[in-house]
Design goal:
It contains 9 helices and 13 strands. It is α/β, with parallel strands linked by helices. Strands 5-4-1-6-11-8-12-10-9 form a 9-stranded mixed beta sheet. The protein has a two-stranded antiparallel ribbon with strand order 2-3. The longest helix is centred in the last third of the chain and has 16 residues. It binds 1-O-phosphono-alpha-D-glucopyranose (G1P).
Length: about 280
């Protein structure tokens, strides 16, 4: 049973300026709710009972938001990443919270599926437990031209119905990408990850990459697996305007109260444009 999750929300959101000048990107609304609330709802629906947010400067509105929420079962904890030194460094801040138990990491700017109806984390937990894994990552197929935006896995075969990962590489260009399977914002780790993060050297931008720590697990012979998202679970990334707009429009069009009205309004607008 995995009951704990870590949600890193300390990123600066520079690709979403000026919207993120004084508010976290994780608090941007996608239709009715802020991005991070979808992430929390998804985790709760996948059996998670306690969540640690790794926050930073300008992120206090996230704490205020969940103070006032209606979440009956989920318990929230907060810690801070002193300076933004990469995703690996953010996860390292969860060492005390995780203790000796495995845990989920869910990126606070990634929604899985329309209205976050994803069971991917439950499938990942199953793979983790049945295969004595050290790590399981969610993956999604991306166009070859886009591999440079993601962590990419090199699959090595199937074990107990799960894809084993031989290697991972952070943001390789298309010529270096070992596949088109990109890490998609959800991970499960054994606490061994902390020792590996500590051994990772910072990249050229001074960031400690989480992907590099997982790669160290692979080379140490530990079992790492990938679970693919279904098309209904596609990842909505609120890290840049193009994908934020797409997420907002899709969620608004599917709104139970205003969706139909909005569809009609857009249909009329496009009819006029088409004339
Ligand atoms: C991070 C990870 C990358 C992953 C991506 C989407 O990158 O480093 O491996 O593919 O999230 O989950 P970022 O989007 O923060 O640059």
């Amino acid at each position: 049973m995995i009951r704990s999750a870590v949600v890193p929300v300390a990123g600066l959101g520079t690709r979403l300026l000026p919207a993120t000048r004084s508010q976290p990107k994780e608090m941007l609304p996608v239709a009715r709710k802020p991005v991070v609330e979808y992430v929390i709802d998804e985790l709760a629906a996948n059996g998670i009972e306690q969540i640690l947010f790794v926050t930073g400067r300008n992120k206090t509105s996230i704490e205020d938001h969940f103070d006032l929420g209606e979440s009956a079962v989920t318990k929230f904890f907060y810690t801070r990443q002193g300076s933004p030194r990469g995703l690996g460094d953010a996860v390292l801040a969860a060492e005390h919270f995780a203790g000796d138990d495995p845990f989920v990491v869910a990126l606070g700017d990634s929604i899985l599926g329309l209205h976050a109806k994803s069971q991917a984390v439950s499938r990942m937990i199953e793979v983790f437990e049945h295969n004595a894994a050290a790590c399981v990552v969610a993956v999604e197929e991306v166009p070859l031209a886009e591999t440079g935006q993601y962590g990419i896995v090199a699959p090595s075969g199937v074990e107990n119905g799960a894809v084993r990962v031989a290697h991972l590489i952070e943001k390789p260009g298309p010529e270096k990408a070992p596949s088109r399977l990109a890490i998609a914002g959800r991970y499960i780790f054994s606490p061994r990850i902390f020792a590996e993060i500590r051994r990772v050297e910072a990249d050229q931008r001074g960031e400690i990459q989480l992907t590099d720590a997982i790669e160290r697990m692979c080379t140490a012979g530990l079992r790492v697996y990938a679970v693919q998202l279904t098309p209904e679970e596609r990842r909505y990334d609120v890290g840049n305007f193009a994908s934020y707009f797409e997420a907002f429009v899709e969620f608004a069009l599917a709104d139970p109260v205003h969706g139909a009205e909005l569809q009609e309004m857009l249909r009329k607008k496009f009819e006029v444009l088409a004339v």
